[in-house]
Design brief:
It is found in: Cell membrane. Residues 1-26 form the signal peptide. The protein is of the alpha/beta class. It folds into 4 domains: 2-190 and 332-350 and 409-465, 3-Layer(aba) Sandwich (Rossmann fold); 192-326 and 474-505, Rossmann fold; 532-580; 591-641. It contains 19 helices and 25 strands. It has an 8-stranded mixed sheet with strand order 10-9-11-12-13-17-18-19, sandwiched between helices. Strands 8-7-6-2-5-1-14 form a 7-stranded mixed sheet, sandwiched between helices. A two-stranded antiparallel sheet has the order 3-4. Helix 8 (253-267) packs across helix 9 (279-291). The structure holds 2-acetamido-2-deoxy-beta-D-glucopyranose (12 copies). The site of one 2-acetamido-2-deoxy-beta-D-glucopyranose has 3 residues, from strand 16.
Length: 642
Amino acid sequence: MPMCRLLCSFFLALIILSSIPASVDGCDYAQSICGAQAPGDVVIGIMLPCHSKVSLQERIRPESFQCSDFDLVSFMRSLATIHEIDEINAAGFLPGVHLGYLMCDTCSFASKALGDVDYMLEGNRTLNVKCNYTEFRPKVKIILGALNSDVSIALAGLLNVYMVPLLSSTSSAPKLSDKLRFPSFLRTIPSDKHQTKAVAKLMKHYDWNWVGVVYGDDEYGKAAFQSFLADAKANNVCLAYQEVLPHYLDNSQAMVRIKQVAEQIRSSSAQVVLLILKSDLVEGLFREMIETNTSRIWIATDAWSRSRSIAQMDSINKVGDILGFTFLSGKSDSFEKYLKNLTATPGGYNYFIEEYKSLRFNCTPECDSKTPPSYCSIPDLKKIKSSNACNFKDPQEQNDDYLVNTLDTSQAFLHKVAVQAVANALKKLLKCNSSLCLGEINFPPWKLLEELKKVNFSYDNQSFFFNENGDFANFYELIMWKTDGEYRKAQRIGNYKVSNQTVEVQINITWLSTANTTNPQSRCSEPCPPGSVKKILNESCCYNCIPCVEGTYSDEPDLNNCKPCESGTWSLKNSTGCKPRTESYMKWRDPHPIVMMAAAAFGILLLLVIFIIFLVYRDSPPMKRAESKPIVLSWLSFPLVS
Ligand SMILES: *[C@@H]1O[C@H](CO)[C@@H](O)[C@H](O)[C@H]1NC(C)=O
Ligand SMILES: *[C@@H]1O[C@H](CO)[C@@H](O)[C@H](O)[C@H]1NC(C)=O
Ligand SMILES: *[C@@H]1O[C@H](CO)[C@@H](O)[C@H](O)[C@H]1NC(C)=O
Ligand SMILES: *[C@@H]1O[C@H](CO)[C@@H](O)[C@H](O)[C@H]1NC(C)=O
Ligand SMILES: *[C@@H]1O[C@H](CO)[C@@H](O)[C@H](O)[C@H]1NC(C)=O
Ligand SMILES: *[C@@H]1O[C@H](CO)[C@@H](O)[C@H](O)[C@H]1NC(C)=O
Ligand SMILES: *[C@@H]1O[C@H](CO)[C@@H](O)[C@H](O)[C@H]1NC(C)=O
Ligand SMILES: *[C@@H]1O[C@H](CO)[C@@H](O)[C@H](O)[C@H]1NC(C)=O
Ligand SMILES: *[C@@H]1O[C@H](CO)[C@@H](O)[C@H](O)[C@H]1NC(C)=O
Ligand SMILES: *[C@@H]1O[C@H](CO)[C@@H](O)[C@H](O)[C@H]1NC(C)=O
Ligand SMILES: *[C@@H]1O[C@H](CO)[C@@H](O)[C@H](O)[C@H]1NC(C)=O
Ligand SMILES: *[C@@H]1O[C@H](CO)[C@@H](O)[C@H](O)[C@H]1NC(C)=O
């Protein structure tokens, strides 16, 4: 009997959570799609995925989207948002005002998210069409999300109509900084434009100028790659190759393409490879690298720089060094405590927690059988399932440390900061002092947006405010994946300050790829020593060294042109500097002048002797003849014969 109950409730949960009846009448939007809610005076919308996919079969009828693949990391991010809202309520930050929330699952798909906006703004009434939404006062005043930039771009486009603020903690596409196109969008992170600059500065910091790039063909990858191209050029970093990988791995061509890219990486002399990819593609690529024992220095972008699934791949230590940039992060004890005791907010519900608990704690021995039923095929189900799931009486009452131990909860930091930003803006808007709030609770959302742009608060000892593009442009953390047994673990080693564009490395790195502490190299050509200059071959990073000719010099490594010596100075071939032209005087005691003087004295003496002989014998016949013939002596005899 309890067995039947467990199974039934598991099937029921699956039916409720992953299959949505096609007919409108039978569809309970609240339970099946916007599955977490708590009432409040001011309601905050949350749009984050708890499932990472919708089934993308050919779509004929406008039926509801089928979501699949429960996404633990994103689920944790949504819990951080909800937990922070609960904390603010508990602390009485807004006296007399209770914050509520309504969370809808975007399933990482823009169309799905757009469909939820209607429900968020008008509950289950249909949205009234108006010419002017200035006086539009929906229950949801702001939406926190979305996760990926392509979903945020779509949502921001629609929310512009109502000027309902959209505040993301993860969407970093540079396009979203454009406040003419996305006036209602704000984010608690800098634009990717800064991240690619940080990457180029990091390469310059380590003197790597011959690097490879692999990027995805989605909005995020293409925009970040274009931005990196410009930054690489500005920092004299050259691309050994650039490769594109298709975004959706379901594509049967993808594996073939990954193999081609892996071959390119192996055959190139570039030791440093930048991967602007989502984590599942990085995993595919690394699997190839591990199989072929290829080790490189990998630069991670925020999309995978904290990916646990990559850090825990088998033999991950074979791939070499991994460095990357991430957004601000920070652990929180109260959030970890909440994850160990997951319950919906009192008065509300959270079907995502229920789905997680049934994945983890429901007893499903049939999934271990030889022919498991189809619902067992959820990826990672086996990984998520607790080993003593069959000993629990009520799975929904169970709790453990699984989320805290398997996920990097410090990533949730900026979601908490986003909620803090909203609370601080509300405090201003609702004119709160420490005992009550006087402002109108049912305000139109554009007023909150106005207040949000002006917010300046401090949290966890850091100050936060939006710049003119609606971004938090403070800094990135530089991390390195150090070995942790057979797996890897991210360690913070420095940071990149957006305002003054400097990479700061605070911890000495032990490189895996060089087996000692000297920095690994990734150059097309060896640097030219002083005395020689670069003769560029085909690209600015590839060159031969030629020595400077006489009269020119080079005093630094890697100069493009020899410098001419200033007037009054000179140099030999291959010189690192010029020497002044000095006037030197001979000394009487030096051997050289003594020899010269001696020779000159001897010459004069000889002349004198000849002169005397001439005088003495000037009347002899041979002298008379010589007087007219030998030209050489004629000038000597001239004064004598005239
Ligand atoms: C939605 O509709 C149901 C039944 O039609 C009703 O009970 C519920 O109060 C409505 N919710 C909102 C938010 O309007
Ligand atoms: C829109 O409505 C507001 C308030 O009702 C009004 O002040 C404003 O002038 C209207 N704008 C236009 C363009 O009609
Ligand atoms: C990779 O290295 C392992 C051991 O270090 C070796 O057994 C294996 O053959 C190597 N594979 C390739 C493709 O070189
Ligand atoms: C778990 O949370 C519930 C409700 O928030 C609370 O009553 C209970 O004491 C908590 N349990 C533990 C072990 O913290
Ligand atoms: C808050 O403001 C109200 C109305 O202005 C005032 O009566 C009350 O004393 C204030 N409370 C504090 C703690 O300042
Ligand atoms: C934010 O506030 C801090 C101090 O509270 C101040 O130093 C800083 O200049 C402010 N920033 C902006 C942009 O107003
Ligand atoms: C903030 O900084 C102060 C002094 O630097 C320190 O004592 C305090 O613990 C810090 N607080 C947090 C939350 O980090
Ligand atoms: C960047 O800022 C840090 C600390 O604020 C400062 O020490 C450093 O000199 C600055 N660098 C530049 C290039 O301005
Ligand atoms: C890093 O190494 C340098 C020289 O090898 C040393 O001077 C410095 O103190 C080290 N820094 C740290 C943080 O260990
Ligand atoms: C460190 O590595 C470099 C390059 O691999 C090598 O030339 C050098 O001899 C090594 N130094 C030590 C102390 O092992
Ligand atoms: C430039 O020359 C280098 C060295 O000869 C070679 O490795 C590289 O592939 C060349 N690059 C291009 C773009 O031709
Ligand atoms: C230039 O000088 C350096 C050392 O000063 C020497 O190693 C190099 O061989 C010289 N090159 C030529 C072409 O003479």
